[in-house]
Amino acid sequence: MRILIVSDFYPPHFVGGAEISCLSQADQLIRRGHQLFVLTSWWGLDNPAVCDNVHRTLEYGGNAAGSQQSPNCRDHFGLRRRRSQLARATILRHNYKRAMDTLAATHPDVVYAWSIGGVSIGPVLAAQDQGIATVFRLTDYWLAQLRRSVCLEPNPLKRWYRSVLCGMGSIRRLDTSHMLPNSRAVLQAYVEAGFPNTSMQVVPNGIALDMVVPDDHLRVTDSSDLHRAFRLVFAGRLVPEKGADTAIRALAYLASDLGANNATLDIFGRGDEHYVAELKDLSASLGIADRVVFVGQVNHAEMMARYEQYDALLLPSRWPEPFGRTIMEAWARGLPVIAAGVGGPLELLTNGETGLLVQPDDPEAMARATLRVLCDPDLNWGIRRRALAVVRSKYSIEEIAAQVETYLSEAAAGKRKQQTASWLTIWDTARTVPSAPRDPRGPDNER
User: Fold this and answer.
1) pTM score, two decimals?
2) Torsion-angle region of residue 205: left (phi > 0), alpha (psi -120 to 50) or beta?
3) pLDDT in tens, 428-446
């Protein structure tokens, strides 16, 4: 097959785990003999560019859900919001045209759309206008948010206005009959937004088995000494919903109330400089600035290698994580995980068996769970062994890619069959159209 992936970002220019998952699937599809192209934004570059079948030509307009102004920002008559909406409409038109160019150059059998809330629905509309099969890879909630904003607005004029700005006129123009959510949590969110369950098949993210450490590689922790150096890690986008502040507060609680004075926290990822400054100020105000290190973003290979330096991963998200890729990665490298029990982590983790779950926004509970898993050798060993077994049995990228390959192939074949049926219908109709009745008075009287 000729497959065109569409995404907001694509490595090496990326912001989170979704792009890493996209790259790993793309690599596997290429290995399985398919010709693969990518259409993405030129975010991170000085100018649009095309290189090695990767077309970085789309304009990136930011996440539609995050384009709302701050509640403290005065917006007389909604002018700021209107400008933002019109700017996004302009980006949609631009990206629709760029997508048409790419479709003409690549001739895909199927378009595989990942998270495109930042580059707009334009590329998908372009593909569907060309009669190309489209499959949505649902790794977040952007399409559900789009449907809610268009369909659930009670004011019909506003509903029409938003549909036009989205380039659809009506949400019914969009074919969403093929959707691959990466968790049951995402599937449920889309069902609640009005998408039919029958159009979706859950296919989780995967990881290459050669990245999974063997069981005998696990370090044995046989000490319950509170004063030894515990090394904790947080990896993710530095945005409020990821809860890095909860991890920092948990570290402070470990020292001040639980006696773990030598615990440290390394924070990987990047975010808005103002928010990062707030996190650093929080560390200083809690008296632990010397034990919190903001490493920044590193490439995926380096991150995977670094996991083994730590004793546990903290995942304190306060929003429903669509999946929680860092859990799978930490497991693969032999780390126990302490996560907030909301969204995808509820599916991945079995509490007390493959990790520990706590309530979101509860740094005390996260600190106590962390100390429990680090100071109980039997619990620690059992969690890590079982987690490794789960990764091998359920999240092999090779097996995940095979499922995706089958789904894409069936979508492309279904579209071809549909088009063939349409042409046969047109042909049969043309053959059976009765000729115009002839005038019995002869050709001279026919008009």
Assistant:
1) 0.84
2) beta
3) 544 444 444 444 444 444 4
